Protein 1
Amino acid sequence: MSSAQQNLSSRKMVNISDIDHFRFTVLVAQWNKEVTGALEQGCIETLLLNGIPRESIRVFAVPGSWELISAARLAVTHSKTDAVICIGAVIKGDTPHFEYICQGVTNGLATLCSTQDIPVIFGVLTVNTLQQALDRCGGIHGNKGDEAAITAIELAALSRDIRSKEPLF
Ligand code: DLZ
């Protein structure tokens, strides 16, 4: 799982047909805004670079990563989005709060993934230090926002392709 040797945003382009038909919802936690703002920027730039029209990208701010769960649920339930991209940064502090938030957000978003038909992308950094976060939002390890955008496009296309094909058996 280590990203020590890996640039998280090495892939910025995908080759997918009718890509401009997709619509994306981007949810951005406001805690550690220096980090989440950079992740958001990388994510939006990568969506645009791949041909997603700006008007097909809706961005919503949520207070903290914890709120990504309810916001993502609202987005998959009440909108026509093709994928939801959740952006957050949880940085370890002096109390066990870090573990509870990480566990809650991970479990909450994983539950959505396994119970809803719309892909929910985990663009949440869970790191020990601010420097580790900075390294992953445009620093030496690239920008995980780019990676989240690419993953969202790929999952939206996968969902479209699976739904559009006649069952083989
Ligand atoms: C409370 C809290 C703490 C301590 N740390 C973070 C963090 O590192 N990253 C983050 O996104 N949010 C943090 N929060 C806020 C919670 O996610 C949530 O917004 C509050 O507990 C209110 O529900």
Protein 2
Amino acid sequence: MRIIIKPDATEVGTWVANYVIDKIKAAGDNTKRPFVLGLPTGSSPISTYKELVSRHKKGEVSFRNVVTFNMDEYVGLPEDHSESYHSFMFDNLFSSIDIPRENINILNGNASNLDKECEDYEKRIQQYGGVDLFLGGIGPDGHIAFNEPGSSLSSRTRVKTLRYDTIVANSRFFGGDLSKVPTKALTVGVGTVMDAREVLIIITGYNKARALREVVEGGISHMWTVSILQMHPKGIIVCDEASTLELRVETVKYFKDIENDTRF
Ligand code: GLP
């Protein structure tokens, strides 16, 4: 696993955006084999999305040959609700770049048959040949997408009931009113994310420090679902200094030394 430590969230966003842009460019413009990118919502990827939009506006990157799959969506929230993940993605990224509408895939939390919606989503990912790069964030309890503690580490896309802590955390987007936060979501599984050829997790802020410690220094556990990243052949964590505060000094120094070593 690579761990990239940057001073703050802005520099994290710049690093991740550069990484994504390099991958999109390397994939070229072969429309028969688009670049397949998995995407998260939340505050963690915002600096990355800002940078991607800015670089697109400067003419440095096109998303015409990119296909996206979002991680999750609330169940029962109208797509045009300001807090739906559909709205989040269009407001923060899709409306400001040149990605064709038909290349955007987001789970439909209002589908009449939610199980079928999840099965179809997995099939669609397969039809594109799998995800090339899955970006993700994590919750303070180390959950990825909506795979909360105790989720199977081989889980697939499915309906999940949200735990109370997540509902409380997300109530900030619903005027602090717990009763307005959806109690269920559709989410890709831990296994779905792990199938991607590369997985890049963005972790910022002191409130994620414990989770980062568990993921890097702890063992693999379904109680910290993102810890499965230890098994991925190409897993990268890009984090800020604040999130490293619970790591051992030795761990931080080790990963910084590796990244700074210019001999390789
Ligand atoms: C939600 C999302 C996750 C996200 C997490 C953390 O639970 N389903 O995908 O990683 O929130 O969000 P934030 O980046 O705002 O801390």
Protein 3
Amino acid sequence: MSRTSAITTDQTKVCTLPTGLDKGRLPSHIAVIMDGNGRWAKSRGLPRALGHRAGVEALKTTLRLCSDWGIKALTVYAFSTENWSRPEDEVNFLMALFERVLQNELESLQNEKVRINFLGDLDSLPRRLQQLIEEARNLTAMNKGISFNVCTNYGGRRELVLAAQKLAKRSLNGDLDPDMIDENIFASELFTASLVDPDLLIRTSGERRISNFLLWQLAYAEIHVTDVLWPDFDEQALSKALFDYQSRCRRFGGLDPMSSEHHHL
Ligand code: IPE
Ligand code: IPE
Ligand code: MG
């Protein structure tokens, strides 16, 4: 039986960085809201499920490219805490798809030294999926390649509430003085504790909203919205997002370091 693998198969040759991109100014961490699977399917007269399946292929391509181009971390939004409100058969299909893909791809992720993690409130996922997640996490934990994070039953508000609960418990236990809670201690209780904040957020399918994704972590991310529907997201679309990113001036509340304005106050 033939099995497609995450970032190998026919694409074993390494993809080179598009000319014109500055290797030294790539984002360390890219976050992606993979949206538009349903519309992609609808525009072809196909059931939504096939849009989600095609979305998996776009994800494999994106992971491969990010890994080859030297991006350190890729964090993708696969299922939000609000997505449970979809019809039961779509939710069930997605859970089964996550299981199948994870099972089939684990070996090639391992071969490519990908460190895979799942971020979100994982306790309410199907048992079997939870087991696979645990297995994948443990197997790849020491890998030195790209850090690949899949947000599943993830909600930014849920994450912040859970962090607040953990801090409150530590305080009640006497382990933590509430006055000592600062941004670093708070961030250390988030699902993303070991990750730097994303430098670039990509949202596909033209929607200009965050949809409860990484509310804390996106504080200073550059935002690239593309009309491309997620299943059509490819090398050209990723390259466009990176050129857009490199055209931005990141000030973090300060002044443009390249401009001389501040010498003339
Ligand atoms: C994103 O595609 C995938 C998930 C939310 C699971 P959608 O399913 O939201 O696709 P559209 O927005 O309906 O086109
Ligand atoms: C955001 O997409 C969630 C994921 C991509 C998993 P949605 O399709 O759920 O977002 P809304 O409903 O358009 O805001
Ligand atoms: Mg959507």
Protein 4
Amino acid sequence: MKYQVLAGKLSKIEVTSKRTEMTNHLVELFKATPPDHIRDVIGLIRGSPYPDYEDFQYGMAEKMVIKSIANATGLTTNQIVEKMKEKGDLGKAAEEELAIKKQTTLFTKLLDVKYMSETLDKIGRTSGKGSVDTKIKLLAGLLTNASPLEARYIIRTILGQMRLGMADMTIMDALAIAYTDNATNRPIIERAFNISSDLGLIAERLVKEGIESVKDFKVTIRHPIRMMMAQRSGEKEEIFAKLKGTFIAEFKYDGERLQIHKDGETVLIFSRRLEEISEQYPDVCEMVRAQIRANNAIIEGEVVAYNVETGELRPFQELMHRRRKYGIKKTMKAIPVNLFLFDLLYLDNKDFTNKNYPLRRKALEKIVNETEQLRLAVQKEITSEDELEEFFESAVEKGCEGIMAKSIQEESIYQAGARGWLWIKFKRDYKSEVADTIDAVVIGAYVGYGARTGFYGSLLMACYDPIENQFKSVCRMGSGFTDEHLETLQKLLDQYRVSKKPPRVIIKNSTVPDIWIKPTIVLEVQAAELTLSPVHTCALDMIRKGSGLAMRFPRFTGRIRDDKTAEQATSQQEIIDLFKGQLKKIE
Ligand code: ATP
């Protein structure tokens, strides 16, 4: 299949923000794709030949890409930089320069998607001495044979700037329609994605073996499972009602969630974002190797920093010092950790995700040798509000954030990738202010004055709407920042500055920021309350015509949620639920 066909569709998808139109373009594309090419096509749409959990990067900075364009067009790098400034995008700059050059060249070979994937793979895998030149040559080779439109998307792929505004859910909708003629089969594809995180593999299975085979998709060791999430509640009665009177409560540890895959002596650790982070936690790998009695297993737990002398748990912020690639041995000593295990998803080649929670926990207990550093999450069966209150107090006293209430009913399976009522979090914050902190995405910044001259003065924050795949503004936040925060955030956000409004960002004219930020960084925000707002676009028209929802007196808690992607930020629906919960309290 020619890459040209794909680039043509991408250019149509890029200019629409309507999900149904995007889906239709994708359906046409998939119908034109030969079965042996579907995996490559999915990779090229998503921007990488590999699923997200593979730590694969092209390793080409903008400067190198400019050199490749110079090689392919015969222009100087300065000329290309000028064009980039004019167009505001290197992809468009390359497209235009190539269009001029192509008028004078006759011989180019048509790029096909297999060749494209292989070359992108080569670019990513080239490393070591001389690799800069090799990468530049490989990319220049692609560009020499590319049509102008193809060049636009090749450059954006390499720079990780596809800008299509398309969610995986839309790709799944299109796969269901293209290959089963029935959009209602999407949940089957979604489940397979939730337990494997590899859309290319699922698409190939669907095309070659049909939807029945996708239904049989099994958990595979070393393929991360999308994590199950919890609903929140501040009402004890609601927890009892949702969990049918009796449930298990567990300490809610305040650390980092890990999904651990033990396969023989190999231990792989995946983060909440499903990135492989085994290298950050050699001590956890060692504990698991030594203390988990299983040939292979997938287990989940929370890793928490602790004080060796007193045994006390330390706040989440301390664990952040472990977020690094170098000098791990030193930080490992300075910040020792405990691991609290709370789930088992796979054991000795058997999928446990469809088993109920009591069975999973029992199986987990059987394979863990508890030590001082490696323990099972503390839990208790709860049948009355007094027991719940007492357990909650003991959790807080031990340095936990609150508790997790978990269903023990027959239906209490591990719901990969879903935020359902089988797990309910009940936290200390619920007793004050808005019933929970909100994880909001930075989408813009306003310049600072007075003491903040030279820094950002305030930030425009958004929630995520997974249905429209859009980021909608929910507040302008200017408090809670220490000088240290201001400096850290400035450095961090500067990496994501863009010249125009990112396509997935939806705001009103009255909130246009001085600087646009690509939705990437998630910050934890506490607010006094949620209010109807004429200026913010979260839940616009959903509660009252012409109004959205906004956070009032938003304050940065100091916590950068770098364990979350922008799409894992608090959703529009969660904010609506919090708003309704607030009304209930007033009533
Ligand atoms: P929060 O912001 O409240 O941490 P979140 O959005 O990161 O929530 P949720 O799934 O909503 O994630 O809340 C559950 C989180 O609590 C888990 O992701 C996990 O990191 C942590 N956690 C701590 N202890 C437990 C436990 N015993 N069982 C399940 N999750 C736990």
